[in-house]
Amino acid sequence: MQPDLLVVRHASSGAASLLAQKVTCSVINAGDGQHEHPTQALLDALSMRRAFGRIAGLKVAICGDVMHSRVARSNVALLQMLGAEVRLVGPATLIPPQAERWNVSIFHDMRDGIAGCDVVMMLRLQLERMDGVMAPSHREYFRFFGLDREKLACAAPNVRVMHPGPMNRGVEIDSDVADDLSVSLIQDQVEMGVAARMAVLTSLAARLENDR
After folding, report:
1. How far apart are CA 28 and CA 17, in angstroms?
2. b/e burial code for range 26-36 (CB count within 10 A of at least 16 → b)
3. Which helix (H) or strand (E) element contains residue 162?
4. How far apart (Å, rounded) are the C-alpha atoms in residues 172 and 142?
5. Nearest of 181, 162, 157 to residue 172 by alpha carbon
6. FRET partner for 203 with CA separation of 20 to 30 A, picked from 119, 129, 171, 172?
7. Whole-angstrom distance, CA of residue 97 vs CA of residue 116
8. pTM above 0.85, yes or no
9. Which DSSP string do the residues of 101-158 spell out, in sequence order?
């Protein structure tokens, strides 16, 4: 087919990297297994910068099923690179053991974890990737780790809420919070997803023009 750009989304971690070794064109990782989701991290960073005017110095809590989240891994790497303080919040069963080496603070209490945070990023329970029971019932999970107004009050006064989607309303986030545009950046994330991915394609296409 001889493409100039190749966008790959694959269920196996490392698939995009392996493919990049076999082809001569640019390979864009659109999500590989539980490993990385780079363009999601780019659009999340863009949404934060639009909301706060900066990323350096922000306190960001990434909450929920970190164990199975490629979004979390990409966001931890990028946000730390840009100078943010990153926290991981969730049940011990859903925080990967290697997270202790990521230079992040780890919390198993939602209120303590998001206390004073500028950004609270919620992650969905990825039941399709769980081997056995790793979380309580949805009702119990929401009680302890679902984001509602009461828990959100522990965060910074100007807190913004994020979610990479798809959302499980009433499981990891309350609709009252998700749909409130005064605190929620979720709609902006959707819009910035188009802009960020256009920028990636444009940047790589420009390199092609320069190489020809």
Report:
1. 9
2. bbbbbbbbbbb
3. strand 160-162
4. 6
5. 162
6. 119
7. 25
8. yes
9. GTT-EEESSHHHHHTT-SEEEE----GGG-SS--S--HHHHHHHH-B-HHHHTTS-TT
Provide the 3-class DSSP secondary structure of residue 195: helix
Q: For residue 139, which amino acid is it?
A: R
Q: Specify the residue for token string 């919040």.
A: 89
Query: Residues 16, 37: contact at Cβ < 8 Å?
Result: no
68: helix, strand or coil:
coil
Distance CA 37, CA 201 (A): 16
Side chain identity at residue 196, one-letter code: A
Q: Are 26 and 33 spatial neighbours (Cβ–Cβ below 8 Å)? A: no
At 46, is the secondary structure helix, strand, or coil? Answer: helix
Model confidence pLDDT, tens digit, residues 58-109: 999 999 999 999 999 999 999 999 999 999 999 999 999 999 999 999 999 9
Summarised one tens digit per residue, pLDDT across range 15-35 is 999 999 999 999 999 999 889
Of 1, 109, 68, nearest in space to 87 by CA: 109
Q: Which residue is it, tokens 């659009």?
A: 43
Q: 């769980």: which residue's tokens?
A: 130
